[in-house]
Amino acid sequence: MAQEQNKRGRILSGMRPTGKLHLGNLEGALKQWVELQDEYECFFEIADWHALTTAWQDTRELRAFVRDLAIDWLSAGIDPERSVIFVQSRVPEHAELHLLFSMFVPVPWLERNPTYKDWLEELGPAAATYGLLGYPVLQAADILIYKADTVPVGKDQLPHLELTREIARRFNYLYGKLFPEPQAKLTEFALVPGIDGRKMSKTYNNHILMSEVAKEVERKIKRMYTDPQKVRKGDPGHPDTCPVFMLHRIYNAAETEEIAPECRSGRLGCVPCKANLITKLNAALEV
Q1: CATH 1.10.240.10, the chain: domain bounds
Q2: 214-286 is classed in which CATH architecture?
Q3: Three-state DSSP class for 46?
Q4: CB 99 within 8 A of CB 24
Q5: Residue 262: which region, alpha, beta or left (left: phi > 0; alpha: psi -120 to 50)?
Q6: How far apart are CA 75 and CA 287, in angstroms?
Q7: Radius of gyration of the chain, Cα coordinates, nearest whole angstrom
Q8: CA separation for the pair 157, 152 (Å, rounded)
Q9: Higher model confidence: residue 57 or residue 151?
Q10: Mean pLDDT, the chain, as a whole number?
Q11: pLDDT number for residue 158
Q12: Which residue has the higher pLDDT, 68 or 114?
């Protein structure tokens, strides 16, 4: 208990279980979470109810996805001795608080949510369920039920957190001060390129899993998109725009100052450059 009192505050963060995690999840969130465990009292949520907002038609794999997510978290360094790890649906009070909040949250607050608009544009009008529209209210319940005062977010997620703050303010005004207004802990999430050069995402099927076996890592990196202007061996390369070099910066930072000029001069070809990355990436994933 004394150890918790020395920490700076309480954090709530989570992920939807939609399958095994990839390098983008690892670099974009999990590594930061691992570091936050030493500074904050941390609550990490496997948000299986949130997964239903866009995947309610088929839930056959949801239980397995919950298990996969927990395994990936543990393997990345989320420590149940230092943090609380829980499955959202196992705590029914989240749904109860969500229901109470929904009684006073105006619909226009939810309709202006940029993520809701993006999902409708991507998924079509049939996706406009109450669960999708109201998911920020459930998200607010997730945060406020633990009286979390800090939430790690990227700049694009600030509108979501502001809605939670608005809900806390309205509740406190109507019924008396109970909930803190959680503050954002801005995190510079790493942009991890996929094997096709776009942002790594399961949606694009361009990802490398955290749990990928060495042979599969090798197969994917060998297929990886590189500099389109480097057609032949000896052609000068452009490492600053090459996705392979971007992964070198993350998993082979010590050699990037040597790799970049060799690539620009044309002395380093794509095949040996990828072979080097395969070795370094597999070594990182084995740790």
Answers
A1: 214-286
A2: Orthogonal Bundle (1.10)
A3: strand
A4: no
A5: alpha
A6: 9
A7: 22
A8: 9
A9: 151
A10: 92
A11: 86
A12: 68
Across 210-234, b (16+ Cβ under 10 Å) vs e yields: bebeeeebbebbeebebbeebeeee
Token pair belonging to 67: 């298990």
- Determine the length of the chain: 287
pLDDT at 3: 52
Question: In terms of DSSP H, where are the helices of 103-208?
Answer: 107-111, 114-123, 130-133, 135-144, 158-175
The enclosing H or E element of 273 equals: helix 270-286
User: In the numeric block, which tokens belong to residue 172?
Assistant: 């406190």
pLDDT in tens, 110-150: 988 888 888 788 777 877 889 889 999 999 999 999 999 99
Of 146, 139, 116, the residue nearest 54 (C-alpha):
116
CATH dotted code for 2-186: 3.40.50.620
Q: Which two tokens stand for residue 197?
A: 């050069």
- Of the chain, the end-to-end C-alpha distance in Å amounts to 31
Q: Which residues of 248-284 are buried (b: 16+ CB within 10 A; e: fewer)?
A: bebbbeeeeeebbebbeeeebbbeebbebbbbbbbee
Residue 84: closest CA among 105, 72, 70: 70
Per DSSP, 236 falls in state P
Q: What is the pLDDT of residues 183-229, one digit of tens each?
A: 999 877 678 999 999 999 988 899 999 999 999 999 999 999 988 88
The CA–CA distances, whole Å, from 285 to 24, 26, 173 equal 13, 11, 49
For the chain, residues classed under CATH 3.40.50.620 are 2-186
Taking the model in full, what pTM does it have?
0.87
